[in-house]
Amino acid sequence: MEAVKTGLRLVVEKGDLERALSVCLRCVPSKPTISQLGGVLVRGRFQEGESPVVTATDLDAQVVAGLRARLEGEGELWLPARETFDLVRRLPECTLEVGQAERSTLPWTATAKSRFAWPLGSAGTAAA
């Protein structure tokens, strides 16, 4: 069965996402010289036995954290690391949806009551 390509879409518990971001933040520079280094790359693919991962790098080291999440669309999504962590940390315990619409370059995070759009798009490119 072929997956429908709708862009990356994860359904994840707040605590699981917070733990993965916390691990990756150890590798994110406080004042990155390249804007992409200030974020994390969330990657998910429909392959048996493969779970989504969150990756960060400072060009000397790379951190990869597994993410227990239900994958509903495959792809890659760049998110600003500290801003995403701060937002997730302040939320009450809940289930989050993180994703990117197929025709949109804006990543988004949603809870049952709120939706947050990020100003940067996939792979750290500025939204047009």
Automatic annotation (TrEMBL):
Lineage start: Bacteria, Bacillati, Bacillota, Clostridia, Thermoanaerobacterales
Gene3D superfamilies: DNA Polymerase III, subunit A, domain 2 (3.10.150.10)
Source organism superkingdom: Bacteria
Organism expressing this protein natively: Ammonifex thiophilus
Descriptive protein name: DNA polymerase III beta sliding clamp N-terminal domain-containing protein
GO biological process: DNA replication
Coiled coil: none
Pfam families, sorted: DNA_pol3_beta (PF00712)
GO molecular function: 3'-5' exonuclease activity; DNA binding; DNA-directed DNA polymerase activity
A Gene Ontology cellular-component term: DNA polymerase III complex
Transmembrane segments: none
Residue stretches making up the DNA polymerase III beta sliding clamp N-terminal domain: 9-117
